[in-house]
Amino acid sequence: MAKKSKVTKKKTHSSKQYLKALRSFWEGRHQHAVEEISTYLTEVDDDKPWPYYRLWIEVLADKGDSSSLTALMEHIGVRMVENPQLQEYWMALKGIAHFFNEEYEMSKVALHSLNQTNHYSRELFQLCDDRVAESLKTSPLFKVKNSIKDYCVFQSLAMNLVLLGHKSKVKDVVSLCKKTFVGAPIMNAAQINLMIDDQNITGAKNKAAILANRFPTNSDFGFQYGYLAWKDESYEEAIQELNRVSKLTKENDPDTQCLIGICWGEIAISSDRADALDQSFEHLAAAITEFREKGLPVTWPSQELNRIRKHFDGVTDSPNPQAWMIKMSQKGNFNLMTSSESEISRIMVSIGEKAKPGDICFLVADGMSNLSDSEKEKNWRLSALYKVSSEPIWHPAKKFESELSLVMRPEFSVPLIYDDINEKMIPNQNEESQVFELDISALGMVASVLEDYAEDGTMVSEAIRNLV
After folding, report:
1. Which helix (H) or strand (E) holds 59?
2. Helix (H, G, I), strand (E, B) or coil at 412
3. Which among 111, 307, 410, 454 is least buried, having the fewest CB atoms inside 10 angstroms?
């Protein structure tokens, strides 16, 4: 008897497998969710795999994995070629992936080729409209809410209605979702957002605590709870939860470290506890280091560090600007003079903790190369004029840096006489640091020199005097 050949049976997606992947996503176990999704799609010839692909997009977006999201879009493109009769679904999913990968123009291109005949094309329309026009009055998905079977689409619809302030419609959608997906966090998530909109921070914090306790491995839920506890001024509660989150993320989340430091700072301010102050400085310093390592701005933790430090040091801002002379290396000066203005419009320079927003900075270098070494030291050249635009930002190696904004850069560096500058230097300057504090009257001296050397010297010198 001839052996029957094995035929892979097509079927719609397995609710059990989908819920398993979904549960991993709710628990913040992104890698587990991706493995469960990809295993299912590899082993089962599903003719309607849309919820799996939509969940895959959501997981990668939540994880912030842009490269994997790009690879998934390429895979979806292949599936679209293989199944042209289902192009409307594949194109909508690809457009949603573009949106979550912050490729908004590409998501709009995808949208323009669709007719809103399925939930995913309607969701894409909703996402693009919110992002581009922000004028949508009624969600296109709400009209077909009773037929939605995809959790991510439910979630997208609910958050859209929260954004638009349709509280009663939010409850309708959440109730439908809970019937299909038992144990989903969507109810609490929606309530938290609505309570925040109503300025009910305590209520939102309590709902966030429920979510964090139900899904203890989801660091996002824990961080939200800690953040709302901070906003509610429940600092010790916030620290306890954020420390737990820090262990989940292996202390590699600068936002968590920053919030812990701020909470300890508030406790130190209110109770004058030295141990709390030490904890505050330790966590804020760690946050600054981690932000830098990730290539992110350090303004938030630095400003908080300075605010707390000033409270205990009794430092008050001076109403008058200071002037600083910052001597650069020849290489640094070359880069400054040859870069485009857009490249040097904002720079970070180590001045010290006394610098403050509004201070004036003269960037100078040694004299021309045809001079002797001793003459170079006595003939500095002014390369650019900057203004301090930030509070001192703590740096683990350089101690304190400040952000400078370009005021003007002369076409050619302008010679200055060291002896004239020296008369304007305030005693006890640290010459080793190559940063010199000047009497503010130095502005007038530099303005006069520029009048003689710059083509638009009069206009420039007037602009310099207007700085003070």
Report:
1. helix 50-63
2. coil
3. 307
